[in-house]
Amino acid sequence: MLIIRNPSHHFFKPGLALTIGNFDGVHLGHQKIIHELKSSAAEKGLASAIMTFEPHPVSFLKPNQARDFRITSLAQKLKIFQQHQINRIILMRFDRKIAAMSAQDFIAEVLIKSLNVKHLSIGYDFTFGKNRQGNFKLLEQAAQQFDFELKEISAHKELEQICSSSLIRKFISEGKIIEANKFLGDNFKVCGLVNEGRKLGRQLGFPTANLSAHLQMIKPKFGVYRTRTFIASINQEFPSITNFGIKPTINHNSAPIFETHIPGFNGNIYGKKIEVKFLDFIREEKKFSSLEELKKQIAEDLLHIF
Known about the structure:
Distance between the termini: 38 Å
Structural class: alpha/beta
Order of helices and strands: EEHEHHEHHEHEEEHHEHEEEEEH
Strand content: 25-35%
Largest sheet: 6 strands, parallel
């Protein structure tokens, strides 16, 4: 998979089969578009390509709404694209220039002049260009003018609801992990480098691997979750439980944190990368009257993972 950060420096022969979008979460609706894109690319002998934007346009256009927003980081998104065997990723920097570009100029300058698009697959709700003036009708006209094939992909539904990133964010923030995972077609994940904290979990008999909560990433409801944790340095995955919250029983810092306990694992993974997959919600976070009561509850929580 080739990642292209400046498409103006490229011209693709014999052309590209392209789709465009933010693809936050790369959920089942996105996967439907990707599947159709790959099929069309193979049929026409073209390279498959996804154009996505970084930073997420919300961060640029509505910065006050960008906190607790993204389902997937750029690294997570690129990893999923690679798993789907996409040939090219056009990574467009969303900046003032792109935000001000008219839909007509975007088609002519980016899609045709820079990328030589021969097939374009778009989602049913796709809009683009300054003030979102570009839509399917405009693309239909452009397809005739510039001689490329255009396909509009219908919505994907699960549980009689349209699959969307906004709905998945709602599920995650409400602790409805099973529903979120169903729409994602995968597990909701958080990843990062393990922080060396105050080691209070170890003192309680339940050592934890702690991850900071990144500002722009969506946060699950405070509580305890059944999870699985992948440790990259040893290439192994383990059943685990994860608390996300502010540790009200012993807290001395109000910043929310992910604390993951892996039963039976005693390796030193401070500074190592882990990926925590969320499987189900166990209970809400609560303040206990004593550390003994907390320890008893953690022991009961662990029964949910075996």
